[in-house]
Amino acid sequence: MSPARSPARRAARRAHGDYTGGVYGSLLAASVVIGAGTLGDFPRVELVLLLLVTGVVFWIAHVHAQLFGARLARRPLNRRTVLHVCRDEWPIVEAAVPPAAAVAVSPLLGLGVQGALWLAVSVAVAGQVGWSVAAARHAGASWRLVAATASVNLLIGLLIVAFKIVLKH
Asked: What gap in Å lies between CA 128 and CA 109, rounded to an integer?
């Protein structure tokens, strides 16, 4: 096992983790579901693909912005830097997976397309709150601050739900 892949090295990377991408990705996933509107002949497949592709596209955009924005100004671009930025921004994609999986399994739960949409939004909002709580706990925040960040993210999620109701998709 190479030193770069050792358990101690992976644990050190996790200890310095940034949860911003997870919170952002969950918010993005909820917004994608809300904005999906009318889907075609295969709505679940289309929504799963829309969630995953949107997550990947935004991941690429964030990687690009990091590499050619702030990073390039501070140090030369090399393979190690590119891989580091790709890994740091990956939670944006990871956050799209649970809502996509919820849509994929929704027929097993007896849900129609609208039920699948609501399940995906619910999972995305729960992910958004979960990532924010994880970030706060990881940063050593007090339970009061953890509750505050969870509440703010829940309110943002409920705002998204309100848009869904108003837009009546």
From this structure: 23
Helix (H, G, I), strand (E, B) or coil at 36: coil
Tens-place pLDDT, residues 64-115: 888 887 656 666 788 888 898 899 889 889 989 999 999 999 999 999 988 9
- Which among 103, 108, 132, 123 is positioned nearest to 36, based on CA atoms? 103
Q: Alpha helix locations (H) across the chain?
A: 7-15, 20-35, 43-65, 72-74, 79-89, 91-94, 97-105, 113-138, 143-167
Helix (H, G, I), strand (E, B) or coil at 39: coil
d(CA 69, CA 30): 27
